[in-house]
Amino acid sequence: MMSLTVLDELRELGPVFRSSQAVAAGVSWRDLYALRDAGELIELSRGVFQLADVGFDRVGYVAVCARVPDGMICLDSALEYWDLTDQIPARVHVAVPSGAHRPTIDYPPTQVHVFKAETFSLGRVEVVGEAGDRFWISDRERTVVDVFRLRHQVGSDVALEALATYWRGGGKNMGRLTDLAQELGGWKAMYEAIQVLQV
C-alpha cells in the first residue's frame, strides 16, 4: 500500500490539482499514477486529478478551470449554474481572454469561447466549495448579458428565457445589468426585451 505521506502531500494541494503541481511538490510521476491505479486518485481530465475520498458538486467545472486557470465558466453552463435555464448543457462552456492560450479539452466535453481581454474580468467570480474545490464563473448579471449579446450563438429563445427568469427572480440588480450590457454590448436588444417584460 502506498505511504500515506504521499497522499498527505497531495491533500495540501487541495481536492483537485494538476499533475505539474504534484510534481513541483515532490511527488514522483510513478507515485502519482500508482495512486490513480489504486483508486486513491481520479483523473478528471488530462493532467487533472481529484482525491477519490473527497466528493463535491460541479466536478466538470472544477476540472475545466483547473485546465484553464485564467478562464471562467460562461454562457449555457453559467445559465445552468445560476438557475436561469431548465436546459442541461451537453458541454462545459468556458471563456478565455483574447490573446490567451485556447486549450483543447476532450474530457469533460468542453467548448472554449474567446471574450475581449479588456473586459474579461467584469463579473468573473470565484466559487469555492466546502471541500476546497474551486472554479471561476461569470456572475448572474454578466451571464444574462453574455447570452443576450451572443444570442446568435446560444439562441434568441435561450437569451429571452434567461432575461425573463432573471427579471422574475429575487436579488436582481437592474442597474448593474444595464451597465454591463452597455459596456459589453447588446444593450439595445436587451432594452427592447425589458420593455416587453414590464408590460
Characteristic key phrases:
8 strands, single chain, 199 residues, 18% strand, alpha+beta
Give an overview of the whole structure.
- This protein is an alpha+beta fold.
- It has two domains: 48 residues; 139 residues, no CATH class.
- Helix content is 45%, strand content 18%.
- The chain has ten helices and eight strands.
- The strands form three sheets. The protein has a three-stranded antiparallel beta sheet. A three-stranded mixed beta sheet has the order 4-5-6.
- Helix 6 packs antiparallel against helix 8.
- The chain is elongated and about 60 Å long.
- The N and C termini lie far apart (68 Å).
- The model has no long low-confidence stretch (mean pLDDT 84).
Widest sheet: strand ordering: 1-3-2
The overall number of domains is: 2
Structural class based on helices, strands and sheet pairing = alpha+beta
SSE arrangement, N to C: HEHHEEHEHEEEEHHHHH
| Strand count | 8
Biggest β-sheet description: 3 strands, antiparallel
Overall pLDDT = 84
- Helix proportion of residues, in percent? 40-55%
Q: What coarse outline follows from CA principal-axis ratios? A: elongated
Layout of helices and strands:
Blueprint: H1 4-11, E1 16-18, H2 19-24, H3 29-37, E2 41-45, E3 48-51, H4 59-67, E4 72-73, H5 75-81, E5 92-97, E6 110-115, E7 124-128, E8 134-138, H6 140-149, H7 151-154, H8 156-168, H9 174-184, H10 187-198
Parallel strand pairs: 5-6
Antiparallel strand pairs: 1-3, 2-3, 4-5, 7-8
Task: Write a compact overview of the structure shown.
With 199 residues, the protein is α+β, with helices and mostly antiparallel strands.
